[in-house]
Amino acid sequence: MRYPDLLVTDEARRQHEALLGERADLVRDSVDFLIDAWQVLESKLAQIESPSHKTILMLCRSEIELLDGVELLVRGGSAANCFHLLRSAMEAYWGILWILREDSERRGLAYQVGHAHRAIRYAERLDPQTSINGELRESLEGQQHVQILDGGDADATAVAEGMAPVLTHPECIEVERAWQAAVAERRRKNRLGPPPWYSLFGGPASIRGLAYAVEQGTAYETIYALHSDSVHAGNAFDHLASPTDGGDKAVRPIRQPEWLARVALESVLAATKIVQPILLQYAPELGMPFFERYERTLRPRVLALLKQLESDPLRP
Fold it and tell me: Which among 81, 212, 215, 242 is least buried, having the fewest CB atoms inside 10 angstroms?
């Protein structure tokens, strides 16, 4: 049973929809705030020849896509499904901070090199002409749908050729060497998977290390850890609500609204906190206009939402 179906009066349903709309509108306006900063960034980067800065642009673009999805979920009352998007949004934010902190040229290119190699590797797994595909089919023999790997239409050679401009770009040569060295080191230690892009040139070896490196360790140990539990289906028993009559715990309805205020607030903060470091780096002259806009159009609504966290009208 979905939560709105449990509301027995038209008035209760209208109030519920109004609150969903209010919170979704705040998320939307915050995303619009970030979109406007992104457009400033795009125009500034058009004047910069180095390709490394495009990583900031596209990580920010990814953040916009993720938070735009949160708005749709909040508007529909689906708070639990926001956790997955918010977790990815945190990783994008930490990546942006990592690149902007120092050594920005190499770090920005490291992301692009890592992306290129992951695309090639995935194509190799699906291309029946590669040895990697053959090894994968052998390891999956007897499992359901393994025949998918027999006739895939992936062309690993074509994908590698498409990624060659990145991997052979003069500015990427040093990064590519570092990537290959990191791959060799992982093989020597029998570690599976590619190295994290941020680990190159002495960077952190894990997303936890990345969070600590950009002074986001508290967010990692609390919010990120909570969202990870959801992403990995480790929170199934969170769908049980405490009984009100002394009986067994009841299963919460689908679209349970308990977390809506919190995910809306987290989304707003995720969207707005990226703007400052981006503008500080690329358009400091616009910092004050954006700050004034935030103070005028967003901050009062954020403070009002904060007050609702302890006595949320949408709590069960």
Answer: 242
3-state secondary structure of 314: coil
**SS3 helix, strand, coil % of the chain, rounded to 5?**
75, 0, 25
Task: Please tell me the distance from the alpha carbon of residue 213 to that of residue 211, in angstroms, as a whole number.
Answer: 5
3-state class of 2 per DSSP? strand
Q: How far apart are CA 146 and CA 271, in angstroms?
A: 41
pLDDT tens digits, one per residue of 173-215 = 999 999 999 999 999 999 988 999 999 999 999 999 999 999 9
CA–CA separation, 281 vs 235, rounded Å? 39
Whether pTM exceeds 0.90: yes
Q: By CB neighbour count within 10 A (0-12 exposed, 13-18 middle, 19+ buried), where does 227 fall? A: buried
307 φ, ψ (degrees, to nearest 5): -65, -20
Contact 87, 228 (CB under 8 A): yes
Do residues 113 and 175 lie in contact, with contact meaning Cβ atoms separated by under 8 Å?
A: yes
